[in-house]
Amino acid sequence: MEEKKLADGRILRLFAIGQLGWAILSGIISNWLVYYYMPSDTLIGQGMSLFITQGIVFGGLTVIGIITGCGRLLDGFIDPFIASKSDSLDNPYGRRIPFMRKAAVPFAAMTVLVFVLPSTASALANDILLFVCLMLFYVTLSLYCTPFNALIPELGRTQELRVNLSTSISLTYFIGTAAAYLVTTIAGIFEPSLGPVASFRLTVAILAVVAAICMLIPAFGIDENLYADTQPSTTPMGQSVAKTFRNREFQIFEGSDVLYWVSITMFQTGLPYYITELMGFDDSWTFVFFAGMTVVSLAFYAPVNILAKRMGKKKLVAFAFFFFCLAFAVTSVCGQFGIPSLAWGIAVAILAAVPMAILGILPQAALADIAEADAKETGENREGMFYAARTFSMTLGQTLAMILFTSLSAAFGGGVGYRLTALVATIFCLVAGIVFTRYHEQKVLSIIGAAPAEEKRDR
Question: Whole-prediction pTM value?
């Protein structure tokens, strides 16, 4: 293979803009799908329509929980297929860029249709339409995000570049997620003339256009052939999946990651409810609090970047898991003990900011280490499959989170159900931290010939 260029700051920024785009779309679905289709009593009182079947329908599950669960599972199972196709693609534009170019606009379009098409007079028809739209949303998400993520170890081919790249995409991920929380705030501008439903849909469409443009920027602005290995893999999909999951360090990473995604998805899905139902604020405050978390979190980006290069990723990631538990636990009791609601909101925002910074940056970099070490040991470049497997862990965790959140909130009702969701998130995050402590970071770094500065000085 010819020597490839190292990505410079401009290339990293272009790549990070793509993350901004898909974070907006993913955030809209993660943050508002349940809120829109299973509205609280307060929202119904404000004129929100009921489109799909409400309440528990089977085995403690809700329709929205079943539909979102099926969507996440489809995404998880289709990711390895797309990863295999991407790894083996023989195209003059590379193995990843062709997928990103073709998937960006359909991905944005399906995000809009999820909220637009299920609008018939029949709840059953809407249930079916929502199911179909959400399945197509996850297919298009996988078509863009799986190849996109596979570029991370290719563009970050040194430890410094890897941490810098992870920092950049973490920043745009949180900005994108924060932008997604703006849906009800922006919709409020149009609501007096359009009503709550039409204004919500218009806002989603506006954000989807912005997201599509962002996703197309790296797809057309980065020449993959200059920075990445574009030699197609010849390993069949089944063998590639098996080899990926046989990697012991990846097994530990994956197990911890599934548990983490359960906890963080329950927290993000519940945030509008925690703010409106437990703290008593208007739903427009959802963006205010998430933006506050993001701003505070940004203050820790530089220290995390520096510390990760000096002392490694494992200690910081494990610390973040355990610290996040405190933020979730506080959320489970917010609005009580006579403490002002604003104080609860500030406390949650500050406590969540530190682990958000760490877990937004370092897991991606750790996975890139694992993928590179595996490539050196096996002689096969299967970055796409490693990141598809990570997407599967995210999907599996989000699926379980959606089912748990909707079932708990529907079964126990009101504040009790919402508090239980935060408590369950605490437990899952605690176990995720315990599992991650078994990761052998130094073994991985020794294989790829990298080690934190702190360890090198000790040798």
Answer: 0.72
